[in-house]
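Notes from the 1:1 (GR / supervisor)

We went over the backlog. Supervisor wanted to see one worked example end to end before approving the batch request, so GR pasted a single chain during the call. The sequence is below; no edits were made to it. Supervisor asked that the structure be written out right there so they could see what the output format looks like.
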Amino acid sequence: MKTTPTTNKRERGTKMKTFQKAMILGTGLLLAACSSPDRFGDSTVDLNGTGANSGVIAGSASDPTSPAYFSQTVGDRVLFPVDQHTLTSTAQQTLNGQAQWLLRNTDYDALIEGHADEQGTREYNLALGARRANSVQEYLISQGVPSTRLKVISYGKERPIEICSEESCYAQNRRSVTVISAGAGV
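Structure output shown during the call:
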């Protein structure tokens, strides 16, 4: 068959109509997906078993079984003095809360990250971060958390949360962070 300008216009018109239909259908599907009120678990959960709406949103910081609650309410980090890996009394209080949460929520494991400030060599800070993470791990184990649910990693000075050359910044970077993940082997 010989291709003529009229044939090309007809083919383009058919392709354009097909494209338009696909766009309309796609838009409709997107709107339908967005209209489901419980699409992302935004419904409330009755933790009391009374059938009444308690106002607790599953997975939110108000849900005591959620990682968000752990991070925001219990506290996911402890700070260390300069060049130290020993736990302060404030750190121990935070870790007591972490241990209690982990013991109540056995479906979660924890990765303990050790961090350092930017002072010192990369190698030294990786080793210091490892000592900090290990201190936290040992403390959580001493509080009854099974060692099989805890892993450690050191980032040294590679992941600062504050970047400046002042003590207030350095202090925030000398930390250990407990990262919660869903069960069976982090």
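Supervisor's comment: The helical segments are 5-34, 67-75, 89-104, 122-142, 167-173.
Batch request approved.
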